[in-house]
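Explain the record.
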Amino acid sequence: MIFSLCALALSSLTQERLQSLTCTEHTLVVHVAVLHHSSALLVKYADTSQYDNQPGWFLPNDELRHVEHPEVGAKRVLKAQVGTENATLKLVDVESFIGDAKTWHLSFDYLAFPTSMNVVKGEGVAEAKWFEIDKLPGLEEFAHRGWGRAVLLKHARVAPLAR
């Protein structure tokens, strides 16, 4: 009984401490290039304020939660934003750069190979659409000056598109 109470107190203290940790200097992000045969899934977000006020197409993405493993974050993004639960994931790049908000971004780029092309738009997703890789929207239709398009093309060329 004493052990259980101590564990509970420690657990509560740890949770409080973890919840109070915030950082305005670093941003950990996961991006997921969702590929099915020769197609890629892109999203537009309803509230662009959470995405540097950038309109346009994105790879599904989000900031990682505190101590969340990047692969767990990629799975969360897939499920929450496009309703995909069965996908093979592959980490293909880790990028380091200064973002628009002047914070240091560490970005984990994944390829996801879902078992189907079924999409269920999640909360906050205004549009989700499959595009043939060779018929992607133009650079100007992507957020962040076409960054997601460049990442997608880079990785789609080296990845086997059919699984």
